[in-house]
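thought: fold this chain, then report.
action: predict
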Amino acid sequence: MANTASARKRIRQTEKRTERNRARRSRVRGFLRKVELAIAGGDKSVAQEAFRAAQPELQRAADKGVFHDNTVARKLSRLSARIKALGAAAQA
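observation:
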């Protein structure tokens, strides 16, 4: 257990930050789930709208340090490619 006042304060700060980060991560996962469902549904326009809504949330999570920058870039790139492939599949 922490003995000094500064250590006790650190524990309080860490708990708050952990809770905030957990909420952010959960929120991002919800946005990603919506995009995944839209892609699975096969409707490109719905998928694009969900993707547009998810993009700033992912970027914000990267800015806050919840996700690594490259992780966000990779996820966005792969989702974008899958949405683009929806249009090609529909036209073929």
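thought: worth noting. The mean pLDDT is 94.
final: tokens above.
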